[in-house]
Design brief:
mainly alpha; 5 helices
C-alpha cells in the first residue's frame, strides 16, 4: 500500500523549460571544409566532418560556422603536438553541446534514432592515418 494520494492519470510535467531545444538525430548535410584553413592532420579533418554533420548544426548561423573554422585550426595544432590547446577545444565544443552533460546544461535533446542508422559520410581520411598521427602524438615524435 502506497502512502499519499493517488497520482492523477493526466499528470503534466511542470518543469519543462520554455527555451528547451529538441533536435532531430539525423545527420546534417554539413559543409565542405574551406581549403584556405590549411588543415593538414587527419584528426582535424575528422573533427570538421564530425561537427559539420552533427545534429546541432541544424540551427547554426554563419557566426557558428566561423567559430568551427577557428576551432578546427586549434584541433589541427593539437594533433601536431600542442597539447596546451586541449582545454580551449573542450570549452568551445561544450558551447555546442559536445557531450551528454553539455546538452543537458544547454537544455538540448537529440531525438532517439534507435530505428534508423545514419549513413556514414564518405571519408577522405583512412583510419590508419589517424592511428599513425595519434601514435606520434602520444610518443612525442
Amino acid at each position: 500500500m502506497t502512502r499519499g494520494p493517488k497520482p492523477k492519470p493526466n499528470a503534466v510535467r511542470r518543469n519543462v523549460h520554455e527555451h528547451a531545444t529538441e533536435l532531430e538525430a539525423a545527420t546534417q548535410p554539413g559543409r565542405e571544409m574551406p581549403r584556405g584553413l590549411g588543415v593538414t592532420t587527419a584528426g582535424a579533418k575528422r573533427f570538421w566532418r564530425t561537427w559539420s554533420t552533427a545534429p546541432q548544426t541544424q540551427s547554426w548561423t554563419e557566426t557558428d560556422w566561423a567559430e568551427l573554422e577557428i576551432t578546427v585550426r586549434l584541433v589541427d595544432e593539437f594533433f601536431k603536438g600542442d597539447l596546451k590547446l586541449a582545454s580551449e577545444i573542450r570549452m568551445r565544443t561544450a558551447k555546442w553541446g559536445g557531450t551528454v552533460e553539455d546538452r543537458a546544461r544547454l537544455r538540448m535533446k537529440i531525438e532517439d534514432e534507435s530505428e534508423e542508422t545514419p549513413e556514414k559520410a564518405a571519408s577522405d581520411v583512412s583510419v590508419s592515418d589517424m592511428d599513425e598521427e595519434l601514435f606520434k602524438l602520444l610518443n612525442g615524435s
